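Task 17 of the worksheet. Students: predict the tertiary structure of the chain below and write it out as C-alpha cells. Keep your answer in the requested format; marks are given for formatting as well as content.
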Amino acid sequence: MDFIDRLLLENRAWAQENRAYDPELFERLSAGQSPRVLWIGCADSRVPAEQICNAEPGELFVHRNIANVVAEGDSSRSVLEYAIEVLQVEHIVVCGHHRCGGIQAALSPQQTGLPHVDRHLEPIRQLRDAHVDTLHPLAERDRVTMLSELNVRAQIELLARLPLIKKAHEEQRGPTLHGMMYALESGQLRELVRWPPGSAHSFMASSAMALSE
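Model answer:
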C-alpha cells in the first residue's frame, strides 16, 4: 500500500475510534480551542508532542522546529503572540531531546551546507562556543545531551526576557515556563527548569546546578 494511502486509511480509523469513544469530540473541537499549554519542541519525527504526553486533541498548542529554538526569523514569535494574547495559555514548554540531529550539527565545526538550517542553528553554535570548557571533556553522546540541555535553558531564559512574556506577567496572567528533556531511550520526559524564579525549580537555580555538575 502506498504510504499516503495508508495515512488516509489510518486517519479514518482514528476518527471512527474517537467518535465511538466520544461522539461529541469533533463537534467540540470544531467550535474552538482552549489549550492550556504551548509546546515548543523539535521537529524530529521521533518526538511527537501529543503522543509522548498522551494528550487529547485540543490540549496542546504545538510549534516545532529544528532543535526547538525560539527564533526571531521563523514563525515562533507569531505562535507565541497568538498563544499568549489570544489563547492565553497557562504554560509554555520548551522540550529538547537526546540524540538531537540539530544539536549534533551545531557541535560540528563544519557548516551543514544547507543555508537556512545553518542560519537557524547559529544561536546554538554560539551557545556551544560559550560553554566549550563544559562540553569539550565530555564523550560525544554526553556532549550532545549537555548542549541540548543548555539550549533548552537558553530558550527559557530568552522567553523570560521577551516583552510579550513580561507584559503577561505584569498583568498576572502567566504563563509559567518549563524546560524539559525527552529521552528517546526510555520515552520519558524530565523537567530541567521552571520560571518564574519564585517557583519550585527556577531556571536560575537549575542553570547554576547544571554548570557545577
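Marker's comment: Strands lie at 37-42, 60-65, 91-97, 176-183, 188-195. The chain has ten helices and five strands.
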